[in-house]
Write a structure and sequence with these properties.
By secondary structure, this protein is mostly helical. It has three helices and no strands. The chain is about 85% helix and about 0% strand.
Length: about 90
């Protein structure tokens, strides 16, 4: 009669394999993320080399990611605050 330890060992092996799979996927994605970030840096460097202001480009990219309503609210608050301090 089997004592059940074989099925427990099998389940442990499956869980370990699944865990290893998750870790390896994250590691691959982290490598891809690093490669993509390097590509983004190269694009900004290229733009800078052609005379574009990188700080402004980054701001445009950030703004374009925003929802239109959120952006309008933020712009209105900025204008309100600037007016409040006399700017």
């Amino acid at each position: 009669m089997a004592d059940g330890s074989a099925s427990v060992d099998g389940a442990t092996t499956i869980a370990a394999d699944r865990l290893r799979s998750f870790i390896e996927r994250v590691e691959r994605l982290e490598e891809e993320k690093t490669a993509i970030m390097n590509d983004v840096k190269e694009v900004y460097a290229e733009a800078k080399g052609e005379g574009y202001d990188v700080k402004t480009l980054r701001q445009v990219v950030r703004i374009r990611k925003m929802d239109r309503a959120d952006r309008q609210e933020q712009e209105a608050l900025l204008e309100l605050y600037l007016n409040a301090i006399g700017e």
